[in-house]
Design a protein that fits this description.
By secondary structure, the protein is an alpha+beta fold. The chain contains 44 helices and 38 strands. Belongs to the cation transport ATPase (P-type) (TC 3.A.3) family. Type IV subfamily.
Length: 1267
């Protein structure tokens, strides 16, 4: 199908099959027919993130809830109870627990979905400006009415409604600044470019004149990639990239008006395709809980089988008996089979249905206290810990492996210029080193700076106006007037300091030797190079600092003028000096002169402007907004040597060289940094050399291999070049061994023919849709070779405070992209390695390709690794260092197990030159093969993959964006906060939850045990001695709140002790609180307490005239107090909140039971619980039995509580005796209060037992016979 243009030119349309590419036809009247044909392939801009609709909520929610095994189990119990021959309760009563749980979860899900619905409705009803062909102007429309092909007009501070290609910007440079905080959390501005060919518009774009089609890739979730082209009716194509795409959800900043055409709308936009919801991570405790529930199911089957066998025997011994439920007679075998299912219904409480709800509530409480911990708050940045997942808090207490990034994690994300080496000569910058050693962060001064340079709101962007296509040293006045014009203020509400702009990073003390050489820079040295002489040292110094200033993406800003001072203005006229000879031009050193090379006739100096103000700006007032600390450090270092970056736009970069004046470089291309090339390049037209120059900066591991190697024919030149490269390599190795980060700077001068040849292939790569990344990579590699080494520099990473204190039974691996020497030095500085450690370095031979490695070679290497793993020297501990290429081999399927064996024999592992993919592979390998709990921590986008794959992901709120924070389970302000998060909150969360789960199992088994023991004295009839409502409410209401408070507030050891004794963390690592022995002890204790609670009252009232429910009320009340006081004994930390909850539970118990007994005459037919509790409360024997039974039932638990806990008190006593005393004194839940509580119970009980003369008669029949 074809679509005609206004001139009659047609466009090809997609077929009915879903195309691999998207063709966008503009929504204009002239394209009406063609647009209607393709619009069916496009989605509307309306979004819906809700899971349910009003009419699907109940069925879908029930469907999802019954995917849980526990809910299916209780649904089975409910259905089973509807069978008359096995009915144990009234049908309605059996449904109550399941209905309560389903209702609570449904209400929670409904409220969450309703919140999403309101948010969707609000977003869909946002208003934007859409072009209307009928009116010929932009009109207001709701976001939900926007369609693919619509033209959208946006103003400053407006949010982008859909993904659209930028076609017009009011910015004279063809730029649009956007804020992407809604996508990646980054508040620094990003620059977007108008499509090539649309930049020259002098007036606002008229959509009716648009006669193009757009062909791009189908919708996908990759935020960092966009492939396509825009094709004119003349078939001329212009490539589209991510720099031309405005993403939905971003906000336009510092640009008055922009116009774009929508290519993706609604759920096809990249932000919506990335909205996959929060990931679900199952905790180790939850996995073990599922196993124990299965164990309880097996126990339930055993108990029901015992009763079923007993029922069969009883029927055999009593033939002709009628079954109470149905009034029928059954054979012993069939009667036993039916009794099995009756007991399944009766003992259903053994499976704790309310446990899952309680766990969720406990986790919410734990997260609340973690987020409000003042010790995890970073005051200078006003940042507190953030929680992104509720499911893994208890995993913090079981971490065995920590995988940590170095940059921004073990080190602060502050990069400071330390020293450099240019042309093989080292410049130590000793004064700068002294400044760094004596530097002390002053947060108060930082706050003053914040007030002065407050966010983007007080900064105006220096114009990146086009300064002229022709490259020159002189200034184009129209461009300079744009350069210093006031930009639109950024409407952000946050008042934060610019990233990477602390005095530590900006204040660089120059080296005096280098300053003296820098002052000698003049055009004379460039003249010598033009005569084909080798690059001189002075020219290398000049080009070195030029590369630092322009080979980056730093955005220049200046403080906005305030008060009555007039804004900075630029002269509109030039006063020209008299004609001067070439030699005189070269000799001029005055910084206020704008010098030119021989291609220019005049030397122009600034003259007065129309307002009489001279062109005079203060370089110190310029502010730089960088995306990384590396770029900020380089630009500040160049400015320290008076090579100041003044302005930047998509076409030109302006720097002030002071002694050479202001230089304007025409920017032709940027080859951005990527993890494959590990370098960045910028292609410019040099204003002095008048040649195409490529400046490249990157890691020395790749840059040194790209330098000139071929002989030039001049022996001295080749010899000097080789010596310089060797000296530079020695400097690199020396600096890296001191923990400094190294960076190589190089350049390449191209002829016009070389540039045109490369440019032709590069344009083809840019306009390609398939394999664009591969083609661009090949294009970059064709350009970045035979480089001229200018020098290298070192930046120092600032160590994080207390990053060296994290030690316990945790294995720490450092995964970094830095070189080996730097990583090892940082490891020593952070105390991850000790001076006595012996290092094993695994490094591959880069001269041997992997393809050449035979099976025998791989086996030999594997055997060597295995042998190294078993070497033992008692006087040393071992650490392993491995680089990226070797790591690629070590992660091979045939070798990875040997590699893991080796790592198990060392104390620490350092993986240097590791890629993001390798980081995630290491985490996955260790987690799956070792079956251990892993934690990954990082601060950058390169750490996201390992953060997501680890059991617990930690993001550092650094200055490299927020990708790591958004992908993490917990986000910290500083690495030092990890210590308390693990050792204190991790230990508490795991211990609390483990103890609460064990308490639930004990509580339910103890209560179910009463029903089980009673069957032995009721002919195994499945008859309960407690009324149905009390059975249901016991776990649902009476004993539900205390364990939740216990799980939220209990503290077995104080925070001070846990921090001072990291060895205590090993207890939770080894699962001691929730091991098999702990589970077995609680099960046995539940059986014992139910045994005592049943048989002591039974033999007390044996042969008495007590009725069934009166006897059951004694058991019910006694078990209630046993369970409550059991929790008191188990609690190590009791507060008024605990006692208030205990009191509330007791009041609730007696009020509901009393009300039920007073009002419900026939609530439990055919039995009658009327006035049962009231009669018991008036009987003194009731109190005596309750006290004595409670005392005997809790005696073993109390005696075990008197013994010090091996994982707690003994360890505390060994490591910190005074701290143990502090715990006992500070926390009323210690042994002293427990002893006094128990003593207050035992004395009255003993007195009442010895002096009571209650009449205890024996009459078994009245109790047992119900059938």
């Amino acid at each position: 199908m074809e679509a005609g243009t206004p001139e009659g030119v047609s466009f090809q349309q997609p077929t009915k099959k879903i195309p691999k590419r998207r063709i966008v036809i503009p929504s204009l009247q002239s394209f009406k027919d063609e647009y209607e044909k393709v619009s069916k392939y496009y989605m509307s801009n309306r979004i819906r993130t809700t899971k349910y609709r009003l009419w699907t909520f109940i069925p879908r929610n029930l469907y999802e809830q019954f995917h849980r095994a526990a809910n299916l189990y209780f649904l089975f119990i409910v259905l089973l109870n509807w069978i008359p021959v096995v009915e144990a309760f009234r049908k309605e009563i059996t449904m109550i627990p399941l209905l309560v749980v389903l209702t609570i979860i449904a209400v929670k899900d409904g409220l969450e979905d309703y919140t999403k619905y309101r948010l969707d409705k609000m977003i869909n009803n946002f208003v934007t400006h859409v072009y209307c062909g009928k009116t010929g102007d932009f009109v207001d429309k709701f976001w939900k009415d926007v369609k693919v092909g619509d033209f959208i007009q946006l103003s400053c501070n407006e949010e982008i409604p859909a993904d659209m290609v930028l076609l017009y910007s009011s910015d004279g440079d063809g730029l649009c600044h956007i804020e992407t905080s809604s996508l990646d959390g980054e508040t620094n501005l990003k620059e977007k470019l108008i499509v090539k060919g649309f930049v020259e518009q002098t007036t606002e774009m008229d959509p009716e004149s648009f006669s193009y089609r757009i062909e791009c890739e189908i919708p996908n979730s990759d935020l960092n990639c966009f492939r396509g082209f825009i094709q004119h009716t003349s078939k001329e194509r212009v490539g589209l990239s991510k720099d031309n795409l405005l993403l939905r959800g971003c906000t336009v900043r510092n640009t008055d008006i922009v116009v774009g055409i929508v290519v993706y709308a609604g759920h096809e936009t990249k932000v919506m395709l990335n909205n996959t919801g929060s990931r679900y991570k199952r905790s180790k405790l939850e996995k073990k809980l599922n196993g124990d529930i299965i164990g309880c199911v097996l126990l339930l089957v055993v108990m029901c089988s015992v009763v079923a066998v007993g029922r069969g025997i009883w029927l055999s011994n009593h033939p002709g008996q009628y079954v109470y439920n149905s009034g029928k007679q059954f054979e012993p075998v069939w009667g036993g089979f039916l009794m099995f299912w009756t007991m399944i219904i009766l003992l259903q409480v053994l499976i704790p249905i309310s446990l899952y709800v309680s766990i969720e509530l406990v986790k919410l409480g734990q997260i609340y206290f973690i987020q409000n911990d003042i010790d995890l708050y970073h005051e200078p940045t006003d940042t507190k810990i953030q929680c992104g997942s509720l499911n893994v808090a208890e995993n913090l207490g079981q971490i065995e492996y920590i995988f940590s990034d170095k940059t921004g994690t073990l080190t602060e994300n502050k990069m400071v210029f330390r020293r450099c080496s240019i042309a093989g000569q080292e410049y130590g910058h000793e004064e700068n080193a002294k400044r760094l050693e004596t530097y002390q962060p002053d947060y108060e001064s930082d706050q003053d700076e914040v007030a002065l340079f407050a966010s983007h709101c007080s900064l105006k962007r220096l114009s990146r106006g086009r300064i002229g296509r022709k490259s020159s040293i002189g200034l184009n006045m129209k461009s300079m007037s744009r350069m210093f014009r006031s930009g639109s203020m950024l409407g952000t509400q946050s008042m934060k300091q610019l990233a990477f702009s602390s005095p530590l990073e900006t204040d660089v003390v120059p080296d005096q030797r280098l300053v003296s050489k820098f002052r000698r820079i003049s055009f004379n040295f460039y003249k010598k190079y033009e005569t084909a002489e080798p690059i001189s040292e002075i020219m290398q110094i000049s080009e070195f600092f030029i590369a630092l200033a322009i080979c980056n993406t730093v955005v220049v800003s200046e403080p906005e003028t305030t008060g009555t001072q007039p804004p900075l203005k630029v002269k509109t006229e030039l006063s020209c000096l008299p004609d001067t000879s070439k030699e005189e031009l070269v000799s001029l050193d005055a910084p206020d002169k704008f010098l030119v090379h021989e291609g220019m006739d005049l030397l122009c100096a600034p003259g007065p402007d129309v307002d009489g103000l001279p062109l005079d700006y203060d370089p110190a007032e310029l502010s730089y907004e960088a995306e990384s600390p590396d770029e900020a450090a380089l630009v500040h270092a160049a400015r320290a040597y008076q090579c100041t970056l003044v302005a930047r736009n998509p076409e030109q970069v302006v720097i002030d060289m002071n002694y050479m004046g202001i230089l304007t470089f025409q920017r032709l291309h940027i080859l951005p940094f990527d993890s494959t090339r590990k370098r960045m390049s910028v292609v410019v037209k040099h204003p002095i050399l008048n040649r195409i120059v490529v400046y490249t900066k990157g890691a020395d591991s790749v840059m040194m291999d790209l330098l000139q190697k071929e002989p030039t024919g001049n022996e001295n030149t080749d010899k000097n070049r080789k010596k310089m490269q060797e000296r530079t390599q020695r400097h690199l190795d020396d600096y890296a061994s001191k923990g400094l980060r190294t960076l190589c700077i190089a350049m390449k001068i191209l002829s016009d023919e070389e540039y045109e040849e490369w440019l032709q292939g590069h344009f083809l790569a840019e306009s390609s849709i398939e394999n664009r990344e591969e083609l661009l990579l090949e294009s970059a590699e064709r350009l970045e070779n035979n480089l001229i080494l200018l020098g290298e520099l070192e930046r120092k990473k600032w160590l994080t405070e207390e990053s060296k204190t994290l030690k316990s039974g945790i294995n720490i691996w450092m995964l970094t992209g830095d070189k080996r020497e730097t990583a090892v030095n940082i490891a020593y500085s952070c105390k991850l390695l000790e001076s006595t450690d012996q290092l094993f370095v695994l490094k591959s031979n880069k001269d041997i390709k992997r393809k050449a490695c035979s099976k025998e070679r791989r086996s030999t290497i594997a055997l060597r690794i295995s042998a190294s793993a078993h070497v033992k020297k008692p006087q040393f501990s071992y650490a392993l260092v491995i680089d990226g290429p070797t790591l690629k081999f070590a992660l091979h399927d045939r070798v990875q197990k040997k590699f893991l064996e080796l790592t198990a024999s060392v104390r620490g592992v350092i993986c240097c030159r590791a890629t993001p993919v390798q980081k995630s592979q290491i985490v996955t390998l260790v987690r799956k093969e070792r079956k251990v709990m892993t934690l990954a921590i990082g601060d950058g986008a390169n750490d996201v993959s390992m953060i997501k794959l680890a059991d617990v992901g930690i993001g550092i709120c650094g200055q490299e964006g927020m990708q790591a924070v958004l992908a993490s389970d917990f986000a910290l302000a500083q690495f030092k906060h990890l210590k308390k998060l693990l050792f204190v909150h991790g230990h508490w969360c795991y211990t609390r939850l483990a103890n609460m789960i064990l308490y639930f199992f004990y509580k339910n088994l103890a209560y179910v045990g009463l029903l089980f023991w009673f069957q032995f004295f009721s002919g195994f009839s499945g008859t309960p001695m407690i009324d149905y409502w009390s059975l249901i409410f016991f776990n649902l209401l009476f004993t539900s709140a205390p364990p939740i408070i216990y799980g939220v507030l209990d503290q077995d050891v104080s925070a001070e002790c846990l921090l001072s004794n990291p060895e205590l963390y090993k207890a939770s690592q080894r699962n001691e609180p929730y091991g098999k022995s702990a589970f077995a002890v609680n099960i046995l204790d539940g059986f014992y307490q139910s045994f005592v609670c049943f048989f002591l009252p039974y033999y007390t009232y044996r042969n008495s005239g007590i009725d069934l429910y009166s006897f059951g009320s004694i058991l019910n009340t006694t078990m209630f107090f046993i369970i409550i006081l059991h929790l008191v004994i188990e609690s190590k930390y009791l507060t008024m909140i605990h006692f208030s909850v205990f009191a509330f539970s007791i009041i609730l118990f007696f009020s509901i039971i009393g009300t039920f007994g007073a009002l419900c005459v026939l609530c439990n037919p055919p039995a009658n619980p009327y006035w049962v509790m009231q009669r018991q409360l008036a009987n003194p024997v009731f109190y005596q039995i309750c006290i004595v039974t409670t005392m005997l039932a809790l005696l073993p638990r109390y005696l075990s509580a008197l013994k010090p806990d091996i994982s707690g008190y003994i360890a505390i006593f060994i490591w910190d005796l005074p701290c143990c005393g502090f715990v006992l004194k500070a926390y009323p839940g210690g042994c002293c209060l427990q002893y006094m509580t128990y003593l207050s119970l035992i004395l009255p009980s003993l007195i009442s037992v010895f002096f009571s003369k209650a009449s205890l008669t024996l009459n078994q029949g009245n109790i047992l016979k119900r059938e």
